[in-house]
Each structure stands twice: as structure tokens, then as C-alpha cells.
Amino acid sequence: MRVDFTTSGLEPPEKSLTGRAGHAEQTGTGAGTEASSTTGVDQTRFSFDQTRVQSLEAHVLAEPEIREAKVQSLQQAIGNGEYSVPASQVADALVSELGGARG
């Protein structure tokens, strides 16, 4: 399942049916019947509260992109020689960043 964070969700889920669950609801074979649970139809429902979404969006956008206090504390720890990262954690991060690609 792919979640698109670029849209603000102005349409309730009922108007934007996609995938197998949407197909089942459009054909009338699903939506809570016993037959749908035995046929393997996946269904997900999200509550839709546009006011709450807009409030959360405004709160997130009001936060600074860079957390200066966190950056300063890390700079101080590095400067004092108190910050260390285990080699295994660095290796895991590299592998994750490269997608597990092998040379």
C-alpha cells in the first residue's frame, strides 16, 4: 500500500476507492459480509476529519525544519569527544541507504 503525503485528503475515502477493496465495494461483493472475509478481500477504512487534519498540518508546518537545540547538543558532544556511533550501526545505515545493493 502506498500513502501519498502530498495531498491533504480533501476527499473522504468513499469517493476515492482503489485497489481490491474498492473493487469489491463497487461490485457489491464485500463491505462487511461474511463472504468478503473468506474471499481474502483487503479493506481499510480511515476516519475523515478535515478540521483535525488541517490543524495537524498547521502544527507540523509551524515547527522548524532544523531542531537547533538538538544540533547544538550533538555539536557539543562531538567537540568534547563524547559522541560515538557503533561501527555496526554505521554499517547498517550504509546498507539501508544503498538499498542492500551489492557491488
Keywords:
103 residues, mainly alpha, 2 domains, 5 helices
How are the SSEs ordered, and which strands pair?
Elements: H1 19-27, H2 34-39, H3 50-62, H4 68-79, H5 87-97
Q: Rg, please? A: 23 Å
Q: What structural class do helix, strand and pairing data support? A: mainly alpha
| Total strand segments | 0
- First-residue to last-residue Cα separation: 30 Å
**Helix amount:** 40-55%
User: So what's the overall shape?
Assistant: flat
Largest sheet: none
Uncertain parts: 19-36
Average residue pLDDT: 74
- Summed up, the helix count is 5
How many separate structural domains?
A: 2
Structure characterization notes:
The protein is mainly α and 103 residues long. It folds into two domains: 13-62, no CATH class; 68-97, no CATH class. It is built from five helices and no strands. It is flat. Residues 19-36 have low confidence and may be disordered.
Outline of this structure?
By secondary structure, this protein is an all-alpha fold. It has 2 domains: 13-62, no CATH class; 68-97, no CATH class.
